[in-house]
Amino acid sequence: MVSPPPVPAAAAASVAAAVPDPELPMVTVADLGILRQVREDGGHVTVTITPTYSGCPALAEISADLSRRLRQAGYQDVTVRTELSPPWTSDWITPEGRRKLAAAGIAPPRPAGRLPDGGPVPLRLTAGPRPVPCPRCGSARTRETSAFSATACKSLHRCEACDEPFEYVKEI
Amino acid sequence: MSEDDDEYGAYQALAGDDDDHRWAFGTGFTDPLQGVDTTVPPGVDGPSLATYCLMLGDDALIYSHRLQQWATRAPELEEETALANVALDLLGQARMLLARAGRADGSGRDEDELAFLRGEAEFRNVRLVERPDADFAELAGRLLVFSTWRLALLGALAASRDPVLAAIAAKSVKELTYHRDYAAQWVVRLGDGTDVSHARITAGLAAVWPLVDELFTPHPIELGLAGTAADVRALRGEFDTVLDAVLAAATLDRPQAVPLAGLGGRTGRDGLHTENLGYVLAEMQSVARAHPGATW
User: Which residue of B has its CA nearest to A124?
Assistant: First the structure.
């Protein structure tokens, strides 16, 4: 390569924060709380991300996308690292992220609540006792049709008022 | 960069010839423990920790494969999606645990080497996970037993002396909570359903019950890792409480079964398996063995 690398035009943190999630492109990795830290040290950028679910196949995509966009922004030396602890919780989705999800017809998660410390995890033998409000019409007359959906982080619901199916980002 | 570039850049790049390794197009999986400090803590035996992580990783890997075999065969689309999600979570857990094993024993073996290039006797999974399900009821019964046990086990491991194992466990607990609820709700629905569904889930639980005792029989490797590994004997109480609650709601009796024998005390954790594991490995490993080191 003969030409010098381009001079970074934007702070690495803002470049990284603007990367969209590959499965939920209406929100960014920062909106979802997947982006944990961006550190600039001289010319070197270290980005720390965390998986939502253990098997989420989007994580490799997100990692590649972060490197590519930072390189395009002029950062040639980028490391993306994973951090597992503390585990991701849906509580880390920002208010802006929740607004964007709802606007796209995906119900944002309710507070996850704490798992009992050290004690056994309570068993749930019936579908969610509190119905998720419909992101379209706002009705509370909805039911869960499946605790799992097209991506690991969502469940499937149906609104009995407007008769539309919708997805919900599960609280974990 | 314009809005449009931003929106489509990720998709255009899939077809580009840059140096990105994209999961959508090939084998470019990143290391699941990339950037994680995998130093073995002082006082913990690295090779033992590696073997223990293989045990936990193999349980998840083999069971994930069995669940994947239900894809296109589930009774409803919702169940298909649910089982694929459960399998995916377990595969993710397996990847991290196998990667942790390869670092802890100093061998540097990666997850692919451990998953695809080990023989049957080197797999350390419990025998519960290697057997195929006769029908959907047996699937629900096995998933209830497995996820109840694994949730209790990884719940205990969230306090492991190995911080990597503790982090993987804390993450997995959230996923397993959903798996157990899903299985429990199906066992109740089948048990408290029609005569046919009641008979099917009774038979399904009877088929998996001989494999339950093995789950709570500690292996010498586990006993030698006090504070790092969990003592499975201590988990039986939680398991029984959960199973009793589910069985009561499902109008089912607790199955009575003679535990499946080992050979000279050896069972799945020692690499002694039923003939079923060979079929799983033949399917799971065939491409990797036929084309060593292949990428696409």
Answer: B181
Scanning every residue of chain A, which has its alpha carbon at the shortest distance from the alpha carbon of B37?
A83
| CATH architecture for residues B44-253+268-290 | Up-down Bundle (1.20)
Check residue A154 and report its DSSP letter.
E
- How far is the C-alpha of B125 from the C-alpha of B145, rounded, in Å? 15
Contacts of B170 in chain A (CB under 8 A): 84-87
Residue B17 above 90 pLDDT?
Answer: no
Strand partners, A167: A106, A156
Interchain CB distance below 8 Å, B184 and A123: yes
**d(Cα B27, Cα B295) in Å, to the nearest integer?**
6
Residue-averaged pLDDT of chain B: 90
Predicted complex ipTM exceeds 0.90: no
* Residue contact B242–A123, C-beta within 8 A: yes
Domain map (residue ranges) of chain B: 44-253+268-290
- Residue A112: closest C-alpha in chain B: B174
What would the two tokens of residue B285 be? Answer: 């490993």
A35-41 and A165-169 beta bridge pairing: unpaired
The minimal CB distance from A53 to the residues B1, B30, B175 is found for B175
Phi-psi sector, A40: left (phi>0), alpha (psi -120 to 50), beta: beta
Distance in Å, alpha carbon of A90 to nearest chain B alpha carbon:
11
A81·B185 Cβ contact <8 A? no
- Note the pLDDT tens digit of each residue in B187-218: 999 999 999 999 999 999 999 999 999 999 99
Under DSSP, the state recorded for A140 is S
Identity (one letter) of the amino acid at B253?
D
Spatial CA neighbour of B140 closest among B201, B66, B198, B220: B201
Contact in structure between A121 and B177 (CB atoms under 8 Å): yes
Given A53, A61, A121, which is nearest B151 (Cβ)? A121
Sequence length of chain A is 172
In angstroms, the separation between the Cα of residue A150 and the nearest Cα of chain B is 7
Could you report the per-residue pLDDT of B46-81, keeping only the tens digit for each? 999 999 999 999 999 999 999 999 999 988 888 999
User: What domains, with CATH codes, occur in chain A?
Assistant: 12-82 (3.30.300.130), 93-114+128-169 (no CATH)
Give A169's DSSP letter: E
Task: Express as a percent the part of chain A with pLDDT over 70.
Answer: 89
Yes or no: say if B64 and B70 are a contact pair by the CB < 8 Å rule.
Answer: no
pLDDT band at B146 (very low <50, low <70, confident <90, very high): very high
